[in-house]
Specification:
The complex is a heterodimer of chains A (320) and B (138). The longest helix of chain A has 32 residues. Chain A folds into 3 domains: 46 residues, no CATH class; 208 residues, 3-Layer(aba) Sandwich (Rossmann fold), CATH 3.40.50; 55 residues, no CATH class. Chain A has 320 residues and is α/β, with parallel strands linked by helices. In chain A, helix 2 packs antiparallel against helix 5, helix 4 crosses helix 9 and helix 10 packs across helix 11. Chain A has a 7-stranded parallel beta sheet with strand order 4-2-5-1-6-7-8, with helices on both faces. The mean pLDDT of chain A is 89. Chain A is built from 12 helices and 8 strands. Chain B is of the alpha/beta class. Chain B has a 5-stranded parallel beta sheet, with helices on both faces. In chain B, helix 2 crosses helix 3. The chains are: A alpha/beta (320), B alpha/beta (138). At the A-B interface, helix 2, helix 3, strand 3 and strand 4 of A face helix 1, strand 2 and helix 2 of B. The structure holds guanosine-5'-diphosphate and magnesium ion (MG). The site of magnesium ion has 4 residues of chain A, from helix 4.
């Protein structure tokens, strides 16, 4: 790595372990402040080597509780942990109640753990983008493992794959029909299934059902998802859960999948960034440039159709 | 990262220090603040002053709200303020709600608690005050 240029002060503070600086820059990232972009850029070369573990699944299955136990396990193993927990914002007020911290216990003087709650703030694409930036900040801040909690509903859970190196899908016994509907979304992304609340009846059945479904799905790119039963109330299975996650991380290294996955993620990120920029520029020009305005007007009047206009625009933009 | 059109949401930590086990009031306030557009980090029950201050710093909040029923406010609230000061984070305003006798309220305000709401306070008043305090800090 060549790193000729000195880091901006905020970036230097983050790297040197200043947690207040980390907390502030995370806010700036969430608020999309330009100052955060320069910090993120400066820190980027130092990131990308840490396991980022996505923990997703329906509301109430115990994601936060599992994360709490995982953090304790990792601290026993002397690994430091950064956690970011994402909850949806209210579409009406833009506000949110972020309650994942409730489950979080640690020694109050333990500097080896950092926990941050984050609201999705509306945009689905935006969640992935902001979450990714925050995981990179945690990475640059030196945490050995990064955990990301997201609620698995609709497209949010799929966003986990854009951020995490290993995705854990948490389910509970007696999902029944829910498993069927989840199949499409969560099954595509799971590297590890965590059947939580194994202290409740039905955990064995759930495990078996899942194993059958996983068997049907076949192994995605050589990795067959592991299934682990856990309980956070009568703690069990947490060591096995971490082992399964580590097994997947080792698989990534052994097979070269880590680089391929990262390439896919970075490529998607770049496409998204360009899409955002081009979209913004195009919207502006469609309003300002008389010729382009006329094309839109003609589509409104039905003398042109939107596809034809789009073809012309793409050509016009490409030729510049 | 560019372009901020809407103002960024204010962040508030709601915590319940002390040993009493009821957080209905705190939850009602949390929801009212959410409905007013706040991002409410809800830390839950039985938080020590150390945990509260650590959470406030990690979450980089603009405001802290403490709720208490147990009567331990004279011990716990000043402790929170002292820890904030130690962390050079006294710029984060702290408000409180719960059953707090007038005389105690006076002393706590003197000590630096910015607003104190008794059981009868309307949610509207709490929200308005919270907005004013948080904006003054943000
Ligand atoms: N019986 C049982 N309850 C659990 C377990 N893990 C979590 N819970 C409970 O499930 C509820 C939701 O937990 P939480 O971690 O907040 O779920 P999340 O919404 O997925 O983050 C809480 O009441 C927990 O106490 C478990 O292993 N067994
Ligand atoms: Mg949770």
């Amino acid at each position: 790595m060549t790193r000729a240029r000195p880091l901006p002060p905020a970036a230097r503070a983050i790297v040197s372990g200043d947690r207040r600086a980390l907390a502030r820059v995370i806010s700036q990232v969430e608020n999309r402040e330009p100052s955060a972009a320069s910090v993120a850029r400066a820190l980027y070369p130092r990131t990308g080597k840490k396991p980022v573990i996505g923990v997703t699944g329906p509301l109430g299955v115990g994601k936060s509780s599992v994360i709490n136990r995982l953090v304790a396990r990792l601290r026993d193993l002397d690994r430091t942990v950064g956690v970011v927990a994402v909850d949806p914002s209210s579409p009406y007020s833009g506000g949110s109640v972020l309650g994942d911290r409730i489950r979080f216990e640690r020694r109050v003087d333990d500097a080896g753990v950092f926990f941050r709650s984050m609201a999705s703030r509306g945009e689905v694409g935006g969640i992935a983008a902001a979450t990714r930036e925050v995981t990179r900040l945690l990475d640059a801040a030196g945490f050995d493992v990064i955990l990301v909690e997201t609620v698995g509903s609709g497209q949010v859970d799929l966003a986990v794959r854009d951020v995490a190196t290993t995705s854990v899908v948490v389910l509970v016994p007696h999902l029944g029909d829910e498993v069927q509907t989840l199949k499409a979304g969560l099954f595509e992304i799971a590297d590890v299934f965590c059947v939580n609340k194994a202290d409740l009846p039905g955990a064995d059945v759930a495990r078996r059902d899942l194993a059958e479904l996983v068997g049907l799905g076949g192994a995605r790119s050589g990795w067959r998802p592991r299934i682990v039963a856990t309980s956070t109330t009568q703690p069990s299975g947490i060591e096995e859960l971490w082992s399964a996650i580590e097994a997947h991380e080792e698989f990534l290294d052994r097979t070269g999948a880590r680089r391929a996955d990262e390439r896919r993620r970075v490529s998607a990120e770049i496409v998204e960034l360009v899409r955002e920029r081009v979209g913004r520029e195009l919207t502006r020009r469609l309003e300002r440039e008389p010729e382009l305005r006329r094309w839109v007007d003609r589509a409104v009047e039905r003398t042109l159709d939107p596809h034809t206009v789009a073809d012309r625009l793409a050509r016009a933009l490409g030729s510049r | 990262m560019a372009r901020t059109t809407k103002p960024s949401p204010l962040r508030v930590l709601i915590a319940k220090p002390g040993l009493d086990g009821h957080d209905r009031g705190a939850k009602v306030v949390a929801r009212a603040l959410r409905d007013a557009g706040f991002e409410v980090i809800y830390a839950g029950l039985r938080q020590t002053p150390e945990e509260i201050v650590r959470a406030a710093l990690e979450e980089d909040v603009d405001l802290i709200g403490l709720s208490i029923l147990s009567g331990a406010h004279m011990a716990l609230f000043p402790k929170v303020l002292a820890l904030l000061k130690k962390e050079r984070a006294s710029s984060i305003p702290v408000f409180a709600g719960g059953i707090i006798p007038d005389e105690d309220a006076r002393r706590l305000k003197k000590a630096g608690i910015r607003a104190i709401f008794g059981p009868g306070t309307s949610l509207e008043e709490i929200v308005t005050t919270a907005q004013r305090l948080a904006r003054s800090a943000a």
